[in-house]
Amino acid sequence: MKNKKVIVVVICIILVALLLCIVGYNVIKQKPKVTLNIKTPTIAMNSVSDADITDAYTFLQKAADMFKKEYKDADVTINVGQLEQTRVDEELQEAFDTPDAVDVFYREYFNMSTYIHTGRVVPLDDIITEDIRNDIDSSYWELSSLHGKTYMIPYLAYQNTLCYNKDLFRQVGLDKYVTDEDIIQNWALEEWEEILSTLQKKLPENTFPMLMYAKDYMGDTHIMTLLRSHGSTFFDENGRIKLNTKEGIEAIKWLMDYNEKGYFPENSENLQINDCSTLFHNGQLAIFMNNIALNPGVISDGINVGNVNFPTINGDGLSTTFITGFEVFDNGDKEKLKVAKDFVKFIYETDELIDLSAGQIPCSNKVYEKYKDELEEVTKYKLNSKNGWDFTANNPNWRGVREVFYKNIKDLLYDEMSAEEIAKQIEETCNKEIEKGYATSVLHE
Fold this sequence. Notes:
Blueprint: H1 2-29, E1 33-41, H2 56-70, E2 75-83, H3 88-94, E3 104-108, H4 109-112, H5 130-134, H6 138-143, E4 145-146, E5 149-150, E6 153-165, H7 166-171, E7 184-185, H8 189-202, E8 208-210, H9 220-226, H10 246-260, H11 273-281, E9 285-290, H12 295-300, E10 305-308, E11 319-328, H13 334-349, H14 351-354, E12 361-362, H15 365-371, H16 376-383, E13 388-389, H17 398-414, H18 419-440
Parallel strand pairs: 1-2, 1-3, 7-10, 8-9, 11-13
Antiparallel strand pairs: 3-11, 4-5, 6-9, 6-10, 6-11, 6-12
């Protein structure tokens, strides 16, 4: 009887031990639960590999769904959200240190590069494999880096050019400037004068030759590009704005002259870029801006459109080049940071997801080669890439610059100051914001 009790006790001890082992094993094997917040503003997008991709949100949602199914290192919940376009900065920064803080951000570089200087954006060199780096042009990596570290990863490239309504041109007798070739044209400054003066004289009432606006900072990069028309580099070698020069002053005088001659819509100082867009889509503006993402909308509105570079004194033309891509934010949770980085890496190592960049200008060379026969629109932009320029110069406070730049253009259009005064004022106000950026800049360690 005593032996039986001993045996029962031993069996119970063994069972308890086995139970503890099983529980311990399950605890060890249990995946961590991680919630990622992935955000983007509204960005138009299309893809030849998936017609359901209509914007950045649908792209990121598809990536999130695939990642959740395949990721093994954590049990992941992903919240994909859109930030209000006009309040992106406020919404993003107000969420710092809250459960809604952004972990992965997708946006245009020129709008998000300043976040690098908050100290929260992490370098991503540890997830950039040799294959990923070699697949993307070095010029794109240069725009993604600061002090030798890569803080952004490029996905799509865009070029903003100007565009013109071919029917309006033909209506006023400017047929010689209209081409049916699928190219991006260039016109010399003398040709611009002939074109705009003819449009101004012969267009119907309430129809205007060329875009101009200064109500807010939206679309300001196009005005900056116009200020390079007479040879200005816009920036000096240290990334500060430099317009109080012969070339800068000549460009300002040129815009003042155009304004006086009536080449711009009435009261342009109180118009937004969207107001000019409405005029163009209504057939009331002959020359606007365009890019590969906006072109389908122009075509669907029945506008017969041609593309032309921004004017330059040498006639070679300029385009406003920018990139959209990813940043990863450190919100103080190492596990979440790891998963956020893995999510971005997953996109670049998954053919189906990197292929979605075929529609705009893919930063991936392999995607372009794979789909180039379906990307005729992309090819003309690639050929025009030599005419692009970097309009932020890795600025630490580009938002601050934008908040004051348009006010100077408003003064230019009011025509109450000289070109020299405007040039000096642009330099002083914009460079003051740049210095503020450097004074408060903190990089992630």
